Amino acid sequence: MPFNFAPDNDDATPLYLLEADGLSPWLAKQPDAVQAWVKAAGFKAELGQVLTLPTEAGNIRAVLAGYGDSSKRARGRFHLAGAAAKLPEGTYRLVTELTGDALSNEALGWLMSHYAFERYAKASGTKAQLVAPEGVNAPRLEAIAAAETRTRDLINTPANDMGPVALEAAASELATAYGADFHVIRGEALLEEGFPLIHTVGRASAEAPRLIDMRWGGKGPKLTLVGKGVCFDTGGLNLKPGASMGLMKKDMGGAATVLGLAEMIMALEVPVQLRVLIPAVENAVSSNAFRPGDILQSRLGLTVEINNTDAEGRLVLADALAYGAEEAPDLMLSMATLTGAARVAVGPDLAPYFCDDDSFASALEKAARRVADPVWRMPFWPAYETMIEPGIADLDNAPSGGFGGAITAALFLRRFAAETNYAHFDVYGWNPTAKPARPKGGVGMGARALLEALPEMLKL
Mind telling me the catalytic residues? Predict the structure, then answer.
């Protein structure tokens, strides 16, 4: 699939991106025949409208794409990608008054509109190619699109082909491509090296649980990314109903997202000391599955009462976060498809995040707006700390009552991040309906915003 801009050439078809109130001034400068054609076609430059302008021989000499008005554009993103999907195969040169972030986002959306998941059946995204618009950082956008493709492919691949072994292989392939150091702790060695929660959650699976550890970069601030790699989640002995199990191939969406972000960082040579930690497990049912009521030890020494085996993601992340915190990184981030409560709160489009650092939040939210990768801040609410303290153990993995489920899960994780500068992202990792540049299926959330914010966050 082509995720690069087309080489500039004189044969590229002009593509005029016109706002609704810009159509009349543009038409006034055109020949009578063009004016008549546009009016006869009913083209009003509404958002998503596309009109080809023919030559006398019947070929395409130019294309008009409607950009609507700002109120309609505010309801979505990557609008040019919607137009690109309607164009015949060919190479196009954008003619627009857009500049800066708006132009870059539309150009990136065009690149990402080429995506289609083709592993098991023929599929295709946009066939039309775009010459890199003047003023955009083409190599950066191409690197971001390629990394987003990796994230989507990993999430879309079902668990029979993306279990812990395959997730390790995918991470190893990425490490090799960028010369990163790569280490994995598997199976019983997890117990020997102090990762009891990762081992316990994954021990019932046919594929051994493991902790993936990738390092890249020898200078700059230390950045640690921790991604939930639950390759399939049955719910364990608290078995999910079938309707809730159908999308559980995406429960490693946190791992897929941090691998995509790691690829962006490495491809663009961001000057950080990057570490990626992924606990890769399958939460399965077998005779040795962990049980409701069990009290488990963690790497940090805190004990955890299990009140629901379907709240397993926070368990594997706990050991990984404790391990990451031992190096005292300048910034540690976790990304996980962790709670249904987060989806109830903000829906599928927004990436909710938790942090205590107002400067982090400010940098992230400004960056998110610039790159059209929306996020929403949620609270580490101290009054709810008692909800995760059951008395019989230090922590409860699934407080009763159901109130504030995303918050209590985030508070649980924060206990293991020690004194590090820490933020947690409770992402969905799935686009439930097709939208421009975002087909139905796996999708990255928050990674582009983080990439954009890193220079300010880490004073690069």
Answer: 240, 314
